[in-house]
Input
Amino acid sequence: MTILEKLPWIQAHIDLYKSDPEKAHYFQSPGTEEPKPSLLLTTIGRKSGEKRDVPLIYGRKDDRFVIIASLGGAPDHPVWFKNLQAHPEAEIQVGKDHLHVRARIAQGAERAELWEIMAAILPQYRDYAKATEGIREIPVVVLERG
Output
């Protein structure tokens, strides 16, 4: 069973992004009290080679976009993150804007700073980090235009 089958609201968000990107940009997903800024990330499947879309909450630091590979505190990384590891070139849609980006994993002080920015947007990230302690460090992914 795919994540889209398990969580049909994700497919609904993808569909909304394609039909009404301004409305999809600030989206209230289950478990959040208010709409959060979201982008639509398009990766290349590491096995299939096909384009894969996923909506994700994002933050900004200067001209960089920041996303968190939490998968709700699951023990393994999300598929989209594994796709970016294999193919760091990707596309994002932020509202109506379409951008080509390159992904990298933040490290050290940069990671700590960006983690705090994202935890301010979605405090549940802190709970997800506790759930993965000793299993994996949740990646903070930086998307840079290019």
About this structure: The first helix runs from residue 3 to 6. DSSP finds six helices and eight strands in the chain. The chain has a mean pLDDT of 93.
